[in-house]
Write a structure and sequence with these properties.
This protein folds into 2 domains: 107 residues, no CATH class; 98 residues, Methane Monooxygenase Hydroxylase, Chain G, domain 1 (Up-down Bundle). The protein has 209 residues and is mainly alpha-helical. It starts with a strand and ends with a helix. It contains 5 helices and 3 strands.
């Protein structure tokens, strides 16, 4: 069966084999897609490829099934049975592929959510460190007992938070070790996030002392 499209030619047989010959329009779209992908981070590129690939192959599968059913209606009982079995096998394989791709997309979504939560938690911890640093660096006015009392109270509250904050930082370091290896981000973003986590640890040491 040959399906001539304005964007090129697709040759498909009943075993699911496909040979594409790109036309001018498809070549233009291919260049445009390539340019878009180059601007994406790895996560979006994976999602793009999943969605794009499924859409293209779904059309092929529909054509195969429709054409196969037409041939079955015109075939002998024996040939129809063989073809029906081939179509059934093809559809089962297609469903399995769709299932695997859906699971992969789900994992990518989960990784993206973990990354977002990690970045949010790091930012919140950095804000707390900045607040603690600001309190520690408040200049005292000689003889101003009220100011001294307020600062001592603030320092006391921050000191009470230290054990909790230490636990949070420990969790951030553990999560960061996993996220920085598996997160769907570019090397540049990975380096930036890793450096931010290192600076956070250095700032923590400064605040504690």
């Amino acid at each position: 069966m040959v399906n001539n499209l304005s964007r090129g030619k697709t040759v498909v047989d009943l075993t699911g084999q496909e040979v594409r010959q790109s036309g001018p329009l498809e070549l233009g779209l291919g260049k445009r897609k390539k340019g878009i992908k180059q601007q994406m981070n790895p996560w979006w590129e994976c999602v793009w490829e999943l969605q794009d690939g499924i859409g293209q192959r779904q059309t092929v599968v529909r054509i195969l099934n429709a054409t196969g059913e037409e041939i079955i209606q015109q075939s002998s009982k024996t040939d129809a049975s063989i073809l029906q079995e081939k179509l059934g096998s093809l559809n089962l394989r297609w469903q399995e592929v769709c299932k695997q791709l859906a699971e992969r997309k789900k994992r990518l979504e989960e990784q993206k959510n973990i990354l977002s939560e990690f970045q949010r938690d790091v930012n919140e911890f950095v804000l707390w460190l900045e607040e603690a640093d600001n309190v520690a660096n408040i200049p005292l006015e000689p003889g101003n007992e009220q100011q001294l009392k307020q600062k001592l109270e603030q320092v006391k509250l921050l000191a009470e938070e230290l054990p909790l904050r230490q636990g949070i930082l420990k969790q951030l370091n553990e999560t960061g070790g996993t996220v920085l290896v598996s997160a769907p981000i570019s090397p540049e973003e990975q380096d930036k996030l890793e450096n931010k986590l290192k600076q956070t640890n250095l700032q923590w040491i400064k605040v504690r002392h």
